Fold this sequence. Notes:
Blueprint: H1 6-22, H2 28-34, H3 41-53, E1 57-58, E2 67-68, H4 70-79, H5 88-100, H6 105-120, E3 123-128, E4 131-135, H7 149-159, H8 162-169, E5 174-175, E6 178-182, E7 194-203, E8 207-216, H9 221-239
Antiparallel strand pairs: 1-2, 3-4, 3-8, 5-6, 6-7, 7-8
Helix pairs in contact: 2-3, 5-6, 5-9, 6-9
Amino acid sequence: MNDISDRQKQLLLAIMQEFMESAEAVGSMEISDRYDFDLSPATIRNEMADLMKMGYLYKTHSSAGRIPTTQAWRFYISEAMDEDQVNVKDESEAREKLFQSRFSAEALLKEAVNEISKYTGYASVAILNDSTFFSGISKLLNFTEYRNIDVLQSILIILENPNILRKVFDKAKGNNNVFLLIGDELGIESLETSALVFKHVKLHRDHDAVISVLGPARMNYSKSVPAVKFIAKNLEESTFSW
């Protein structure tokens, strides 16, 4: 990772915060107006240019502003993200629903994707052998990234094909067995503005499955990562003795 100064870190995080909220390219004037950095727009512009050269930002043809790259999201996850504490009530309700479905791997995964999507506000996908389970696909329409019908159609085709999904999940990178693939790391053009947070789980000791959150690259990782963790933990605990 390129050497980045403290001032550049703060500017980058501010740019990412703005982009997470708007999904629009961020300009130096916006940062100058909304954040108390005590820097002129020209200085901010110069720092943004340096961040672009370092690979943290890129510029689209249609805007003078800048957009975070995959490298920037990786920086945010490793340097600035704090995982949210899962609400005790939410976890208790999810645990009970999963326990009630514990005799069937298919029923468990259907319940798992429902709970993940409900908790995160994003789509959730799971695979087991040649079966795919998903929930919350309509929630993708809440995000600018998926309002293009061709992009959405392409994503639906991918979600219905466990072989394609398995190849994506095989690209896993991350720590603690919770993996993240962001933007171009997914290796699929229609998913270049998306991210997957996922975990491999074992059900009934011998069924290998994957559960995941699918959303825009600007998703709330602080919520998505712990959601996948706690659902995976309860899936495995519900089926450990079977």
